[in-house]
Amino acid sequence: MFAVIVAGGTGERLRASAPAPVPVKPLLEDATGRRLIDRVLDACTSCRGRIVVSGPVPLPADVTLVREDPPLAGPAAGIAAGVGALPPDFTGDVIVLPADLARPEAVVAGLTGPGVVSADGHLQPLIFRAPAGQLRAACSGNLVDAPVMRIIRALDLPVIRMSAATVADVDTWEDALEHGFTHRRTHGHTPGKEG
Question: Which class is domain 2-178?
Fold first, then answer.
């Protein structure tokens, strides 16, 4: 199985709600220095490969970094970019996840077979598992600024039910506080230590 982790958004809601400048959302840290993206990557360590769709971010050497074309073309284009980075001969399943999940281990554990997640009656189109061949076909064509539901409809996946707490994400500073991502260090600057 491969994991495609979509992290290409601007994080506008987080930046707008934070009381001080924050790094790009995937690089938010908890008190131990563990980043939001690290939690998602760690939840996918059993996968044959991990592909992150993002702008330039420091990642482990065994993680493939790709970018949607053009940048900021939306999550559907991001998924397509990640799928394009799969080995051509890969025929297993692919799990697709957003990079801002607060409890990614629980989400990955619940993706036991192909399906798209629904949380308390609300479809979560950025959280699904699908066979690679079907996903490649669903990602064909121009997906720039297209809704992710276009991919989901083409896949025709069964629904996997999870709770809203399981699929909670970090969209705002309030979410960051709730889930322990309160470290405000930004690149080259540590609060309280003026240079």
Answer: alpha beta
